[in-house]
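Changelog-adjacent note: as of this version, every example in the card shows the full chain rather than a window. The one below runs 456 residues end to end.
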Amino acid sequence: MFHFKFPDIGEGITEGTLTKWLVQVGDEVKEGQDLAEVETDKMTTTIPSAASGKVHQLHVEEYGDLEVGKVFITIDDGSEDASSPTDAPASESEESVAPTGETDQPEETVKMEIDQDAPEGERIEEEEAGVVGSLISSRDELPPSDEGQIKQDQTAKPKKALATPVARKLAKDLGVDIQAIAGTGPGGRVMKDDIRSFAEQSKAPAAKPAQADQQIAPTAAPSDANEKREPLTRIRQTISQKMMQSKDGLVHTTMIEEIDVSDLVAFREKMKPIVGEDIKLTYLPFIMKAIVLALKEFPVMNSSLDEEAKELIYKYNYNIGIATDTERGLVVPVIFDADQKSIIEIAQGIDELAELARNNELQLEQMRGGTFTITNYGAIGGSFGTPIINYPEVGILGIGRIQKKPVVKDDEIVIGHLLPLSLSIDHRMIDGAVGVRFIRFLEEALRSPELLLLRS
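Full-length structure tokens:
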């Protein structure tokens, strides 16, 4: 029997949700065949089989939680069943074999495991982690997590709690000592649910005498036929966490303006038949090109704050994120090096990313490394908003739909095409005057769209 454990796939992934089984008990599977769909903080992917044989047992129900190092499926591959499947992390079973903490693993492996306690800044944070691509299907290359299997000497100082930076921040925000929490993750890793449970127990009132308990019988929450409850998906939980992180950590100020883009409308209509039907030439590539020019003019808008070092980090790459609405929730794929791309190349890149987002095929590296973000609610008919900054960036531009409105030109009222813009900035780093000048620069750039083709 081959007891397949949810593999340690790196990138800080320690847990996931099994959303759909692709095989059933009794099915014949081949090595590399997809077994299940799994949802992580960022996206959904499939787990390929690491062995060939017949499915013997499914250990996790659909929408059940998965943790690294725990068995989720058993496959009868014809080998002897030397050990029984267990829901305990791999480290626990290994400790029972080597109770003294000794290990026959190579020195390099031991060093790797001890490095799990490296400073938080050297590890990828959990909220930025997600399963990417397809997993390697060989059982030799996808071992279960071995974290935490080495015991410390009894005379050594207490070992630092094993947890991701995100978990440590959550503990700090909730005011609990992470060292006092017994982790239920692989190798004793402290999970976010462990921290929340510990915080709730700490805040619970002291137990009342038994006599008082007997006087008041507990009552279950009433059910309501007019309500429906469903658990939050992992991506929705991540979105919620990121939004709270931005609102709690940044000082948001939003400036709202309408700018006349009549010349841009005319120029785009002129260019559409020239570039052909194969290229979806929307207004967004022109606006993105203007944004890059504005970021070069106002470098503070393309920065991030290192709060610990109290330093402002100026970015000299221009990676523009595009907030994209999908059935699973909001994702932000990135157009990298937008300053080095033509308007046509930007248009092609936007179209490709939108297609990948709709099909849930975005890779993690396509959603990281952004320096400034655009949210285009005009695509679904919106005009104005107060967009939330994509932390740790310092600005985000909301784009509304272009509408015909009366404008005054040369002391005459004419019909113009007005573009609503909503610019949110982190007021700690950026003054309001800079935000206004940023919008006015965009207005000037879009007023002469031909110049966008000439400027770098």
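Structural remarks: Residues 178 and 350 are 42 Å apart (CA to CA).
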